[in-house]
Amino acid sequence: MAKKTDVTVEEKLRALYDLQLIDSRIDEIRNVRGELPLEVEDLEDEVAGLNTRIQKLNADLEVYDNDIKSKKNLIEDAKTAIKKYSEQQKNVRNNREFNALSKEVEFQELEIELAEKHIKEYKAQIEQKKEVIVQTQERLEDREKHLAHKKGELDAILSETQKEEEALAKKSDEYENQIEQRLISAYKRIRNNVKNGLAVVPIERGASGGSYFTIPPQVIVEIASRRKIITDEHSGRILVDEDLAKEEQEKMQKFFSKI
């Protein structure tokens, strides 16, 4: 192929319009997917978050179980101590020793009472956590089903369109490399500034494609001469004549049908 600097204006216009047709086809494919990829990503994040929450709740249950075991051991130790002090009271020599042992017994009884109170609180926390786990598990199962459904939809669309999109993206890159950087930059800027991504449009019924603003006849003649690149003064889009557009549409349609 000739160097970019040797390419005629008509060749540039054809290449730009072909690039537009390819990119528009890629846009169509991506529009079919719509918000599905984002929905799947959001659902995956939610499922991961719910799994993490369940893991944390189960870890909390384990901590409470260990705390209950610890308090039960403390109660057993306190009961053993009470029995020991009670036996010692039978052999005391004076009231002072008896009262000292009585205080030890009283302290151990308070320890038992406090430990039993804590055990009761831990058990209440366990029941509460278990209810939250059940609710979270139900939510997780619902989200996993929804995720599987959305993934199925996305996978079906991807299996139908991925090969075509990859081929189109490769062709788009090829066309970009054939066009001078100045025009590519302008083309991309226009695409980013319009809702439908149309940066190169044909003349249709005396107006630029997709626009209600008519173009003066002398400008239409100038566009048809293909001697310079002309843009629509209202939208900034690059304009091509109807005949050139039809020829390139037919050419690119043959390419699309082979993918």
UniProtKB/TrEMBL annotation:
Residues 40-181 form a coiled coil. Residues 208-239 form the C4-type zinc ribbon domain. It holds the Pfam family Zn_ribbon_9. The keyword Coiled coil applies. The keyword Coiled coil applies. Keywords: Coiled coil. PANTHER family: PHOSPHOLIPASE C-BETA-2-RELATED, SCAVENGER RECEPTOR CLASS A MEMBER 3. This is C4-type zinc ribbon domain-containing protein. It comes from Gillisia lutea.
